Amino acid sequence: MSEDGEPVLIAGGGPVGLLCAWLLGRRGLRVRLFEENAGPQADPRAATTHPATLELLAVDGLAEDMARAGLVAPIFQFWDRPSGELVAQFDHALLKDDTRYPYVVQCEQFKTAKLILGRLRKLLNVEVLFGHEVIGVKQTEGSVTAEARGPDGVKPHTGSYLIGADGGRSVVRKQCEIPFEGFTWPERFIVLTTPYDFEAERGFCYRSYFADPGAWCNCFKVSADGPPGLWRTVFPAGSEQSEADIMSDAGVQARIQSFFPSPRAYDIVHRNLYVTHQRVAETFRKGRVLLAGDAAHVNNPIGGMGLNGGIQDAANLAEKLAQVILEGAPEELLDLYSRQRRTVAVEFVQEQSIANKKRLEARDPEARRRNLGELREMAADPARARQFLLRTSMLASQKRVAAMTLESA
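The structure corresponding to this sequence follows.
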């Protein structure tokens, strides 16, 4: 099928949906993307982009543009909050022979979305319909129809395939009755953003993780609108507290001061409280409907693996879908997409993000001693540190995907 055939439809205009649109569009395919918001949302969400993901974003210099728009972070640290001890430091330089990008880029996802959107604007075969929400899905053997509600009411749009990249509450996934298996964490997560310079004042690097019995904290820097940038701190918030208490000025100050005591109140420029899930869709493909990103899998943010997994979904799916439509490859290739990316979501993203949380929040003294001791030993051994980095950078999961075939999957 050429660019004159039915378009590929995409629900969701975040980085995952936009990347799918761009990668398909630059191959000459017609694409129509629906996004319910009026434009990219400048909310402070995911920022960490791992080496394996940067490899996939090297097309047309996108990875380099992200580095210029964000911050390059080669190092990350683990700290023990009760003692104030720096437990371990890992340097991505150990991966210099494994990747062109031996570092992480801290680029807020709305910036990534805008960079991709700028490239999309140059493709006449791609339509981006902001202010349009997909509310219904129907498919036949030869096509799929998405009902989208826009300024002019609800209208049907027929395409060859539909990609559901419409987030954790995906209408596309629900319309296709695909189970979303997993659980919800009992505690909520609170994000507090401040201009306080944790590097200058505390010696923290751009990505730092703090272990504390029954608690934890992630602290990382983003470039925001430019120097000096902002720091985001992420904490667990118990279910016994009311949202009003947690989000109050007093509650916010008490939480951040308990980890990082300061004689002055912190300037909090943004605060957000949210529920966190660990879930994976039963399948990422149902007929002519395919899921990617949060529509297919969600996880806690410790380790920054969620958006990375979504971008990797997009790159994998776009390549396979282009082969099916343009080159006549068998549709079973789309089943391989589902198997490959679901395997990564379960074996790497879910497993790693859950392990990260348990490592930081362990209460049992023996478990804490064992966890922190293991981190120290790994950081001190270059060979073990490299193996650890291959997993946290998601290069190992990409290698696992590359080894899977239609026969072996």
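The chain has a mean pLDDT of 95.
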